[in-house]
Sequence to fold (204 residues):
Amino acid sequence: MRSSVVASTFFLLVLGACVPQPETGLLHPNIIIVREFSASTGAVVLDPSFGFSLNRGQPGVPPRERAGAVARGATFQLAEMVTERLRELGFDAVRSATEMPETGARGLIVNGVFRKIDEGYRRRVGDENSNVSISAQVEYRASGAPPQVLLVLNLDSRQLPPAAAVSTRGGGSNVNAAARRVGNEVARSIVDLARRNNWPLAGH
Fold:
């Protein structure tokens, strides 16, 4: 009985939206680098009511192209929201696909993947049900040391509380708005990580 309870507890922790790793007294990072999360067209669920052509007899945009555009928009919005929110809170954050901490400096690398990007039904105003889900991790990088994963996140925009929509510029309930809600939650989780480690803002 005891072993089954322990196993169930471990299972719930693995499936949780946020699985922080134990902190080890690491020195504050000088910079936070946010990558655009990867997203395959296969992860995109298109709105079936769109994609037609306004010109009779002309084909609409091919589904693969539409899915690619939707994925690119979501990845941009998520990375932009994470970066903006961290900057607003006083952290030295940049959005970059290649940048790394300078020699002798310490940094956090934020990256991840979209598990699903669902357009929902955009014609149902107020009930579009657009949503995204992601897996993300935050790595600590320091000169002469291997990368250390400090934070693992599994987030679904449908499961975030209403408060997570704060600062999602432009509001709305489409895929981009869902990506911004998730990005806001990623930033909030990084702030919590910084507080647990007593890291000052902007690497001071």
